[in-house]
Amino acid sequence: MLKDIFIPMTGAPADGAALNVAVALAAHHQAHLTIAELVNLQAPVTGPWDLAPAMAMGEVHDRLRSQARANAAKLRNRLQKEAVDSEVRVVEALSSPPPEMAVSLAQCADLSVLAGTAGSPVGDAVANAFFSELLFGSGRPLLLVPPRGKLSLPLKRVVIGWTANSHAARAVHDALPLLGDAEQVDILMIDAPAGQPDKSPDPGSGIADHLARHGIAVKLVKKASHDNPLSQILIEHAQKAKAQMIVIGGYGHSRLREWVAGGMTREMLVRSPLPVLYSH
User: Fold this and answer.
1) What backbone torsions phi and psi does residue 44 show, to the nearest 5 degrees?
2) Are residues 215 and 173 in the same domain?
3) Do 115 and 215 reside in the same domain of the chain?
4) What is the pLDDT of residues 76-134, one digit of tens each?
5) What one-character-per-residue DSSP string does 158-184 give?
6) Number of other residues whose CB lies within 10 A of the CB of residue 232
7) Are residues 19 and 120 in the same domain?
8) Is 136 found in the same domain as 11?
9) Cβ-based neighbours of 56, under 8 Å, separated by 6 or more
10) Which of 40, 61, 247, 265 supports an S-S bond with 160, CB 3.0-4.6 Å?
11) Which of 119, 145, 171 is the last residue of a domain?
């Protein structure tokens, strides 16, 4: 059950799409929505006389605060049109970067919603920073919404990218409040290992049975990668299945290794045209 949803405004072009999804989720689940308008206030740089730089930085901060208040007012006007219990907070990030400031708010929510990459170097850097901090620091699931991404509710078709590890198991558990109305949930295993008589003769059957006991209609699907990127196979299957959302565990390998090597998490972050629910 979702009762608290959080979304930070990152300044990325996809903020609008992410906000639409967050509002729709809050309305559907009758949840409280918290929106953070983050003000990135740079720490003053001390000059030789310690006065002019501080005065100049104070003027910059005043402009940033004024812009943040204006942005917050626009958000409140937008939310007045929605039947959603909500609040807009202006959060000043002075001693810590905005993504780190967002973590404390995300920790008090059931789900965070975040704008995905817009494809520009600056947009990628912003999205990556928020994504990493929220995924690793909040202890909560993170729904990444790509530019032009939409989420029709209630969800009817969902695809879970399944590997037998703790991250995927957490993702499935965190997705349960969103899966109750689904007509079909595909559990996709790519390059599934052979069954072992002393463990599970049919890999994937255990998690499929678990979801079925929750009353969810499940279909176990196994595919071979044939050396194609795993993200490509997952996205193509989701599109063919007319899925509205994908669920995966975030960073199944070491964080640095996967980011440098271009693992599943990074590829989905960059490539997926569908909203993706991540857990770690």
Assistant:
1) -60, 140
2) yes
3) no
4) 999 998 989 999 999 988 778 899 999 999 999 999 999 988 555 555 777 888 998 99
5) EEEE--SSHHHHHHHHHHHHHHTT-SE
6) 12
7) yes
8) yes
9) none
10) 247
11) 145
- Give pTM, 2 decimals: 0.89
| Residue 25: strand, helix, or coil | helix
Mark out the alpha helices in 37-81 (DSSP H runs): 52-79
Q: Which helix (H) or strand (E) holds 126?
A: helix 121-137
The CATH number of whichever domain residue 130 belongs to comes to 3.40.50.620
Number of domains in the chain: 2
Q: Is residue 14 part of a domain?
A: yes
Is the distance from CB of 105 to CB of 91 less than 8 angstroms? Answer: yes
- Tokens linked to 45: 């740089």
Structure tokens at 79: 């939310």
C-alpha count within 13 angstroms, C-beta hemisphere, residue 239: 10
Give the up-direction half-sphere exposure of residue 123: CA atoms within 13 A in the CB hemisphere: 15
Kindly state whether residues 132 and 191 are assigned to the same domain. Answer: no
Residues 6+ apart with CB under 8 A from 3: 29, 31, 32, 110
Domain check: are 78 and 13 in the same one?
yes
Asked if the structure places residue 152 within a domain, the reply is no
DSSP state of 15: H
Residue 151 included in any domain: no
Residue range(s) defining the domain that contains residue 263:
157-279
Q: How far is CA 156 from CA 75, 178, 207, 237, 260, in A?
A: 29, 10, 19, 15, 35
Distances in Å between the Cα of 129 and the Cα atoms of 7, 125, 152, 224 are 15, 6, 27, 33
What pLDDT, in 10s, does the model give residues 134-167? 999 999 999 999 988 999 999 999 999 999 889 8
